[in-house]
Write a structure and sequence with these properties.
The chain is of the alpha/beta class. The chain has two domains: 112 residues, 3-Layer(aba) Sandwich (Cobalt-precorrin-4 Transmethylase, domain 1), CATH 3.40.1010; 111 residues, Tetrapyrrole methylase, C-terminal domain (Methyltransferase, Cobalt-precorrin-4 Transmethylase, Domain 2), CATH 3.30.950.10. Helices cover 33% and strands 20% of the residues. The chain contains eight helices and ten strands. It has a five-stranded parallel beta sheet with strand order 3-2-4-1-5, covered by helices on one side. Strands 6-7-10-8-9 form a five-stranded mixed beta sheet. The longest helix is centred in the last third of the chain and has 18 residues. The chain is elongated and about 60 Å long.
Length: 235
C-alpha cells in the first residue's frame, strides 16, 4: 500500500524581506518540494525565489485555494499527498493555519492520515505578543472585530472586561486601511489604564512596536494607515 506524502506547513515572509529569517533546514525541505498549496500563485513564486528556490516553475504543481468559492472540496488539495508526494502549504504571510484558510486543509490531512510537519518561521501574532510585554501565559487571538462601529465598540468593551476578569491578553487584527479607525475606537472605548500594544510592520522596514496605557496613546496616536498591524490589549 502506497504511503501518503507529508504535508509541510511553510511560513512565509510578513513583507518584503530577505531570506535570513528562514533556516537552512527550512530551505533544504522547500527546495525538494514540487507541489505547493497556495493562496496566490504569483506571490508564492516570488517568495520561493526570494529564499533561493531554483526549480523551473513550469514543472511545479501549484494548487491555488479559491477563497471566493463558498464550498470547497478541501480534501482535493491533498490529492498529490495521496499519490505519495510531499506537499508544502504556503501562507500569503506568516504561518499557515493561523488566521489563514489553510487550517481546513490541515484538519483534513489529519483525518486522512497525512503526516503534518510544521516548519519554523514568522508569525505576526506570536511576534507581537512576545514583544508586547503583556501577559504571555494567558492570551486569546480574536481575529477581526466587527466592522460596524456600534458592534465593534460593544466587542471592544466585552474583550476589555474579559481581559480584566481573566488577566488575559486579547489579540486582534484589522484590514490595514481600517487600522486608524480601530485604534481610535479602542482609545475611545477603553479605560484610561488599559494597556494597548500596537505592533506594525513586523520584521520589515519601519517596524513599530509600542505598549502604553490608553491615556498615553490618546496624547499621540500613531498613523498606521495601510500598515500590517497586530493589536493587543490587557486590562
Amino acid at each position: 500500500m502506497q504511503k501518503n506524502g507529508k504535508l509541510y506547513i511553510l511560513p512565509s515572509a510578513l513583507g518584503e524581506t530577505d531570506a535570513t529569517l528562514f533556516s537552512e533546514h527550512y530551505k533544504k525541505i522547500v527546495f525538494e518540494l514540487t507541489v505547493f498549496i497556495v493562496e496566490n500563485v504569483r506571490t508564492a513564486r516570488r517568495f520561493l525565489r526570494s529564499v533561493g528556490y531554483t526549480k523551473n516553475f513550469d514543472d511545479i504543481i501549484f494548487l491555488e485555494i479559491d477563497k471566493h468559492q463558498k464550498i470547497l472540496d478541501w480534501t482535493a488539495y491533498l490529492k498529490e499527498n495521496f499519490a505519495g508526494k510531499d506537499t508544502g502549504l504556503l501562507s500569503e504571510a506568516g504561518t499557515p493555519g493561523i488566521a489563514d484558510p489553510g487550517a481546513e486543509i490541515i484538519r483534513r490531512a489529519h483525518r486522512q492520515n497525512v503526516q503534518v510537519v510544521p516548519l519554523i518561521g514568522p508569525s505576526s501574532i506570536l511576534l507581537a505578543l512576545s514583544a508586547s510585554g503583556l501577559n504571555g501565559q494567558s492570551f486569546c487571538f480574536n481575529g477581526y472585530l466587527p466592522i460596524e462601529k456600534p458592534d465593534r465598540t460593544k466587542k471592544i468593551k466585552a474583550l476589555e472586561a474579559l481581559s480584566f476578569k481573566e488577566y488575559q491578553t486579547q489579540i486582534f487584527i484589522e484590514t490595514p486601511y481600517r487600522n486608524n479607525q480601530l485604534l481610535s475606537d479602542l482609545l475611545n472605548a477603553c479605560d484610561p489604564n488599559t494597556e494597548i500594544c500596537v505592533a506594525a510592520n513586523l520584521t520589515i522596514d519601519k517596524e513599530y512596536i509600542k505598549t502604553k496605557p490608553v491615556l498615553e496613546w490618546r496624547k499621540s496616536p500613531p498613523d498606521i494607515h495601510k500598515q500590517p498591524t497586530v493589536f493587543l490589549m490587557l486590562k
